[in-house]
Amino acid sequence: MALDKPYLDVPGTTIFDAEQAQKGYHLNMFAMSLMKAPNRDRFRADNSAYLNEWPMTQNQKEAVLARDYNRMIASGGNIYFLAKIFSCDGLSFQQGAASMTGMTQEQYAQMMLNGGRSPEGNRYLGEKK
Amino acid sequence: MARITAAVTTSHVPAIGAALDNGKSHEPYWQKVFAGYAKSKEWIAEQKPDVVILVYNDHATAFSLDIVPTFAIGCAASYQPADEGWGPRPVPVVEGHPALATHIAHSVIQQDFDLTIVNKMDVDHGLTVPLSVMFGQPEAWPVKVIPIAVNVVLYPVPSGARCLALGRAIRKAVDTFDEDLNVQIWGTGGMSHQLQGPRAGLINQEWDNRFLDRFVNDPVGLSEIPHIEYVREAGSEGIELVMWLIARGALNAQVKPIHRFYHVPASNTAVGHLVLENT
Lengths: 129, 279
Fold this sequence. Notes:
Chain A is mainly alpha-helical and 129 residues long. Chain A is built from nine helices and no strands.
């Protein structure tokens, strides 16, 4: 019997469940390794060489090199693990989040000042805005 | 006897900690956030709790994907502020209360909650930002802290009803500890926010404010909200709010509201804060 996953029809949202965690194990563990300053230094010095120390898929490595967080999430990444990457890059959580929305950082920051993204039209896939 | 006298709930947005650490708390953007805690800081200076049971979630800091406990209790003598990728926060070491913590672990496990016991871990912004908003920047934290770490990162996470029931079990445990201690329980995280994907930045002020109302007056009804409602209405990271229900479960059905604060935004997040006293 299929597991109960009622969260697959929420637009622009990937729920990090046990299945995603299994796909993203090495990607997330790589990201977490950046909590140690010597690892951050080695990663900054040569992204590709550092990534090649981890048994990640080519797709995951390319997504990291491109800092494409949506692609990382699609391949099993979780935002709290991936936050170690943009923190290592000197970016804030707001800058990291903005990069996934197709908006510029300035547009995103202004949206937040205006009260954030409305839930209206954003609850279900295919819902009319 | 030990007694739980009050609950504090608050968001634990990392940027709030960073604003304080980097001397930005008087900038207008952040002043709007910190002003909401002024009354609470005065209140807690009068209350002088001995111990805070601090419910929070670890954000891929102490717990990697190697081991993910659903409910964990810290029984250590102290906890270091973690390096989350930008260096540790410049805040005091967090002192624990091993005697009360082990008492709670023993009692709560006997009440059928399978807590994971943690004797060594670093604590991240989820635990230290609430201390900062309530106590500012002291040389040492004026309370002992018992961390209760809840998994709200890897689905499925515990239900609201399970969290409320855990709070009740913690209350029973504290009530049977012989030492005379003034204990508070804090529930942290939330309110509405989403940090991932094209829907990042979602905020739902109406839903949040209804949550604050019901948290005071209808905690049992509130605990029946399914996970999917949190995700749809309050954003994928809004699920952190289930942790508040642990704090609520440790209070009486009737409580005395002392303070309420709500503000949008702090970085990506709606900030919510309540102070409730046990009557």
